[in-house]
Design brief:
2 copies of one chain form a homodimer.
Chain A lengths: L7 E6 L3 H12 L1 H8 L3 E7 L16 E2 L2 H5 L4 E6 L7 H10 L3 E4 L2 H17 L4 E2 L10 H8 L5 E7 L2 H13 L3 H10 L8 H4 L2 H15 L18 H10 L1 E12 L2 E12 L11 E8 L3 E8 L3 H17 L1 H9 L18 E10 L5 H11 L4 E5 L13 E7 L2 E2 H12 L9 E6 L1
Helix pairs in contact in A: 1-12, 4-5, 5-10, 7-8, 14-15
């Protein structure tokens, strides 16, 4: 391709962190993008909310607009790049863009997780494509890897660190011994956490991304509310220390496993065996482990957020649209299809794992016996147990932690046992229970 | 896609480890492949050398042939999958297949490294495509990641473990303390090394893969002989132990770095800082680290060889051809182009690195002073130095190892210094010099 074909015109919805990165690559690297896509790619418009805000980016002032109609009604614009986020009015804009014959590139995981079916149906109706490489794990080309590179496989399982905020906080707790609140404050100070970090630390953002991965890898159409999730905000520094002592790192994982019991999906802080690639992912980085029936174990790692890493994924999608690959992939993959056969979800009666449990117990004889008896009654056996001498400095009668690692156990049985244990008068609820990945 | 379109017919050249894996996936997973590619994919022929050899694979006897003409002249066959290896007669078969309008999927790294320009010119002449995901790092979709997923980036550097045999041997030397010869024997016993392992352990196979990666990431057309390479066969167990002591693992790396000095390419055992993802890749696994100007650091990991992992990559390419993506990518990427602008290669005058050096020296006063003087004369400064007491068991007058880690040094200066040091009468050549990656 010589780049001398007609040009392609892009309209950007949003000019924040990611949008300005996209504009920067498309403008500063215009020659490279034209060489790789075969056509010149122009940014004609960028939609913003506040036109007065100073924007040091590369886009000239006259291309910035607050009027979405100016972009959606412009017949020259054939690709809409959505990097504004949010559900409303974003969904309406994209439905309209598709109806007007424009292809959509989006980084919006919440929108796909909640409205994937509606958006993809609209794209099929109007013969357009939606690409979304930037919506999961930023710069890591994981959407393409699962959808194309591993297309010969049935994915059997995946485990992913896809929230950089949580991984930064957990790394700071592990390496620097900071308690949760201080680690969060440090993440906010360094720009790795929002002022309101709720959707990150409670696991919602990770669940959005897992909903997208589940669609890609298993054809499973799930909404976020169907994914059991647990955040990192209840973890104590002690849990991190015990995990370290047992040979594990604690990571907030998006987990998916396909078995005869169905598809198991969950988001939860999880003990990951040290020395395995996932355990060593630190700071704001993201990583995805994918196990396929032919390829075996694979692992993908990179920056999950940030202006240029995320823009790298968005621009790769734009190139795919311009070349024509995006349309072919969109039709072949048939994602969020109304007539797809979504696998059934596994119930907690069928899920089996090893578990880490931390109880706060009264420091007196017989407590360990009482707890092990309840576990035994539910068919759960203990693999290791830690209780440290609280030392002379500890006030008398203050509860002390007891940590148990179980052998493989049925989750429903463990939940029943924990409910019973939390009712013992020598136990101070709530107890913490985390899954273990070897 | 409903899989009810006309079928696509594949001819396999080769039915060894990889070929039988490809046949197995295409036959056993026919429904999956048809769903993902939109058409049924049939294997009509497989070319073998010895038709008498028992083949427990899934392919019926009547589809196995020793006559390549039966495949190449069959107009029903539209995709040739080359998994026979070798340069001749493979090159002729593929040139003829392309001339007859067939698309080519190949796993043959040596052929691409040595004859990429000829093959790709032929494909362009006849409007066909060549795909080669399986040629580098087996099951890891790295060709697609660099060519498409990271297409918004200028790759600035890459470091890859792409020879499972060498990585298995180095892991066995590190973890089990086996000397090189025993580690190699163990690799052969477990099927991770060929009876004649020369092309693996001397770095040639890694150089073939680096030539392909250099084409993909930098548009650099190089043949294997242009890539400086050093094998693992001269490494002593002591080198591994010293590296461990200094905080490094020794890995056979394919290295590429783009700088103002040009493109630096090399294959060499290299000290890799422990705790970084590459250092933790063990056994027969492969991994590729890619640094892009937008995306930053990325890392891809998986099985680099074996029947099904490699077949996973081959079948992904077949799906790409059937969907039509392969043709679009082939034209857009314009690889091994006769009018491409290959970057110039950096000379050793311009290459700078930190280096590990091991000298065998006479155990007597003044030797360290003599060696440091030579290094100092060439502007090379020492970062750390190890010499262990040889102990009373060591025979008197036997040479003892001296290990030096340098600060950043110009390679040409170090080579000159080492030449001078090897001539000192207190030094027993040859000395070992390895690069260091932080």
């Amino acid at each position: 391709m010589d780049g001398t074909g007609t040009s392609v015109t892009v309209g950007l919805l949003g000019l924040g962190t990611v949008g300005s990165g996209v504009a920067r690559i498309l403008l500063d690297q215009a020659e490279r993008i034209s060489r790789r896509s075969g056509r010149r790619v122009d940014v004609k418009w960028a939609l913003v909310r506040d036109p007065e805000r100073p924007r040091p980016g590369p886009l000239p002032f006259e291309r910035i607009t607050t009027d979405v109609g100016q972009i959606l009604d412009d017949p020259e614009v054939t690709i809409i790049v959505e990097v504004m986020g949010g559900i409303r009015p974003t969904l309406d804009y994209l439905l309209e863009a598709l109806a007007k014959g424009k292809d959509v590139v989006t980084a919006n995981k919440a929108l796909l997780a909640e409205h994937g079916t509606e958006l993809f149906a609209q794209a099929r109706r109007f013969g357009r494509s939606i690409t979304f490489e930037a919506s999961v794990a930023g710069g890591i080309p994981i959407v393409q890897a699962i959808g194309q590179g591993l297309a010969a496989n049935q994915v059997q399982g995946l485990a992913a660190i896809v929230n950089g905020t949580c991984n930064f906080i957990l790394t700071a707790m592990t390496r620097d011994g900071l308690p949760y609140a201080q680690a969060l404050a440090k993440a906010q100070e360094l720009g790795y956490a929002e002022a309101d970090p709720t959707l990150d630390v409670d696991g919602t953002d990770t669940a959005h991304k897992l909903a997208i991965l589940a669609q890609l890898a298993f054809g499973a159409t799930v909404v976020t509310s169907q994914i059991p999730r647990q955040g990192i905000d209840r973890l104590l520094l002690a849990d991190i220390a015990y995990a370290t002592e047992l040979g594990y790192a604690v990571k907030l994982l998006a987990l998916a496993k396909l078995s005869s019991a169905g598809l198991e999906l969950r988001v939860a802080p999880t003990l990951v065996r040290r020395g395995t690639p996932l355990a060593e992912v630190s700071g704001p980085y993201n990583a995805v482990r994918v196990v396929g029936d032919a390829v075996g174990d694979t692992f993908f790692y990179g920056q999950g957020a940030g202006s240029l890493p995320t823009a790298s994924a968005v621009v790769a999608d734009i190139i795919d649209v311009v070349i024509g690959r995006a349309g072919l992939s969109f039709r072949a993959m048939n994602l969020w299809s109304e007539n797809g056969s979504s696998p059934r979800l596994a119930s907690s009666e069928q899920v089996r794992s090893r578990y880490y449990n931390r109880f706060m117990i009264a420091d007196r004889p017989g407590v360990i016996a009482a707890i092990s008896r309840v576990l035994g009654d539910h068919g759960i056996s203990i693999a290791s147990l830690i209780q440290h001498d609280p030392g002379d400095d500890s006030p008398p009668d203050s509860p002390v932690p007891l940590v148990l690692l179980t052998h493989l156990a049925v989750e429903a049985h463990l939940i029943a046992a924990l409910r019973e244990i939390d009712r013992l008068d020598v136990v101070h609820p709530p107890s913490i229970c985390l899954g273990v990945e070897e």
